[in-house]
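Dear colleague,

As promised, here are the two records you asked about, laid out in our usual form so they can be pasted straight into your sheet.

NAME FIELD: protein one
SEQUENCE, THEN STRUCTURE:
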Amino acid sequence: MSDEGAQWIGGRWCGAEDLNQVRAAITQNPGWSRYRLSRELCRQWQWVRPNGQLADMAARHFLLKLHQRELIRLPPLQRASPNRMRHRRLERVELDRRPVMASLGELGPLELHEVSADPPRRALFESLLAQEHYLGYRSAVGENLKYLLCTEAGRPLAAWLFGAAAWRCSARDRWLGWKEEHRAVRLGLLTNNTRFLIPPWVRVKDLASWGWARVSRRLAKDWLAKYGHRIELVETFVDTSRFSGVCYAASNWTLVGRTQGRGRGDRDRQLQVPPKAVYVYPLSRHFRERLCA
C-alpha cells in the first residue's frame, strides 16, 4: 500500500506487493473459483466490513477491476454471482392510486418505517419505486437503507432510498475541501439519496420537508445499527430538466454546484448524462472535521 506506484483500484490502493500476492494466489491455487479467491483475499488482508463480516463483494469487484485492466487473469466463472439481490425478482404489489389531497394535519398520525428487514413493507416500497419513479427500481446493492412514510392505516405517502455515495463529484469534493486521500478513506461516511418519491396521486403541502425532517433524525443511528458505522453527510443529484429541487431547498439542503454530465462512476469520461444539481445535507455539527481529518 505504500508503493509509490500504487493505484486506486476497485475501492482500495493496490501496490506491486499486493498485485504479486494476488497473482501468487491464482497461480498456486488453479482450482479456486473467483468466489473462493475473493474470500481468501479478505482473510489474508483482513478486509472486513465494520460489522465484522468479510467484504467479499468488495474484494470480488477489486479482482474484476484488476482483470479488466489485464493486470491479472481470473479463472473462468463457475457460477452466478452469490449476490442474491442481483438475481432476485421483485414481488409486485398492487398500488392504491386513489387521490390523497389533504393538509398534513388532516392526514392524522404518520408512521416512518425503515423497511429493509420488513418483507411486506419492503415489497410495497420496491413496487412503488419500480412503478412510479422515473428511474425505476431493480434492487439495492451494497450498504443501503429504505424508508417508507405511511398513514396510520398503512397507505404509503413517500419513499426514500439511500445507498453508496458517488465515487467522484467535483462540486461536492470542492465544497468539502476533500483531497484524493480524504475521499479514498472516508467515502463510506457519505450516503447518496438515490431515490425520493412522493407518488403522483399524493398532493399534501409540505409533506416532502416534513418527511425529510423525520428521516434525517434517524438516518445516522439506523446506519450505525445496521452496518456498525455512522455516516456524516447525505448527497443527492437533482435532474433540473425534470425537477426544481425546491423540496431540498425547503428542507435546508445546501446546493453546492452541478455535475459535469458524466455517468455515475464514469472514470473514462465516456458516458454522457444530463448535468444535475448537487445538494448535500450534514448529519452532524462536526461532519467536516470528521470527513477531512
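NAME FIELD: protein two
SEQUENCE, THEN STRUCTURE:
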Amino acid sequence: MKQYLGRVIRSAAALPLVLLAASVWAQPVPGGAPKGPDRIVLVHAGTLLAVPGREPQQRMTVVVRNDRVAAVAPGFLTEPPGGAGGAAVAVIDLTDRFVLPGLMDAHVHLENEPAFSRRRSERGDRYPPGPGQPGTKAEGAVNAIIYARRSLAAGFTTVRDLGSDDQAVFAVRNAINAGRMVGPRILLAGAPIAVTGGHGDSTPMSATGDDETRIADGTCDGPIECRKAVRYQHKLGADVIKVTATGGFASNTGLEPQLFTDEVEAIIDTAHLLGVKVAAHAYSPIAIKQAVRAGVDSIEHGFLLDDEGIALMKKSGTFLVPTLSASYPPPIFRIPDPPSVKLRNEYRAFERAYAAGVKIAFGTDAGTFTHGDNAKEFGYMVGFGMKPMDALRAATVMTAELFGITAEAGTLEPGKLADLVAVKGDPLADVTVLKSIDFVMKSGVVAKRDGAMLEPFSYPPPAAATAPR
C-alpha cells in the first residue's frame, strides 16, 4: 500500500512540475517582453552548434527577437526573414567564432568561496568569516552577486544553487528575475535538508530545542519534521529541494547514510507533491539506492556508486551530477592526495555510469573552488572518457532536461530563450577552449563581448540621483 501511495504521489506531481516550470520561466528577465518596439539581433555565427548532439553548421544566422530565438537560418542575413516590420535591427559579428547554447551548471554554491559546507557547530568545525566566507546574510548576498556574475562571464547562463541560507541567494535570484541586474538564471534550493548532526546541520547546540531555528536551517528528524522542512523551503520560494543523504568531506561527517528510509521517502514525496524536484547529496551506495528507489531526480557526487545503483539509476531515469571538480581536488582539502581523489579513482563512478548509459548532467560544486572556473569540469569529463560532444550535451540539453526546462532552454531553436555563448576555437576538438568564453548573451541581452563583461545593472538611475542639490 505504501509503495502504491508513493507512486500516486509521484504521478500527481507531474502537473505541478509543469506548472512550476511555467511559473519560473514566466518571471520577468532582462530582455523580456519589451514595452516599446521589438528588438531584433542578427547573430552571425561562423560555426553554430544549435543543438548539441547534432553536427555543427557553418555560416549561420541566429535571429533573436527580444528575449527569444525567432529563427536559425543559413548564411549571414542582413535582415530577418519576413522583414523587420519597423523594429530596430542590430548585427553581431561572430563569424570567426564557435557559437553554442548557454551553458548550465547543476551544482553551485553562490554564497561562498571556497565553501566549507554549512558546518556543524560545537564540534570544532566552525571557521570564522574570511575571504569568500559570509559572516552575515547580507555579506552572503554580496558574495552571491559577485559569484553569479563570474558564472555568467564563464558562459553559464543558468545555474542551480544547492545550499545557501534563507535570504542571500533568494535576493539575488529575485533581482535578476525582476530585471534589476543582468546575471545567470538561478534555480535554488535554499537550506539543504539534513538530520541533526548531519552534513548540512549548522544549528548551534543552544538551538537544539528551537524548532523554528532548526526548520529554517533545514534540520529535521523523522518523516513528519522532514515534511515540514521541505514545505518551509518551498514556502520561501525554493525551486528545488536538496537532501544530504550521507555525510560529507567538507563537514567531516563521513560517507555513510544519515537518513532512515522513511525520512528519505517523506522528503522526496513531499517535494514532488509540491511540484519540486529533489537532488540528493550521496556518496554511499546504500544511500544512493535508497534515494533512487524513493524517486529522487538526481544523485549529486555519487562517488561510491556500485553496479546495482547504476542499473537502478538507468532504469529509473535518475540523473548523475558527477561534480568531478569537487573531488579532484578542490582547494578545501589542504592536504596532499586528499581522500576524495583516492575514492574517485578507485570507484570510477563517472566512467562506469557513462558507459552504462546513465543520464549525466553537468555540475561542478563551484564554491568548493573558485567561481568562474566551472568549465574545468569539461576537461575532467573528457579526460575520463566522455566524448566532447556528450560533455557539451550534458551542460546544455541534459541539464535542461534535469531542470525540467527543455521547452525554454538547452538548445538554440525557434521559440526558446536566446541564451548563447561563443568561443575562439572548436570545443569539439579541444574542450579546454570553453575556459575562455568570448561572448555571452542571456535572454537576448549581451552580457559579454570581445572577452569583456558589460554593465551588470539594467535599470536607469533615478532622476533624483542626477538632480542638482
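A couple of things worth noting about protein two: Confidence is low (pLDDT under 50) at residues 1-34, 116-132, 460-469. The CA atoms of residues 438 and 450 lie 5 Å apart.

Best,
R.
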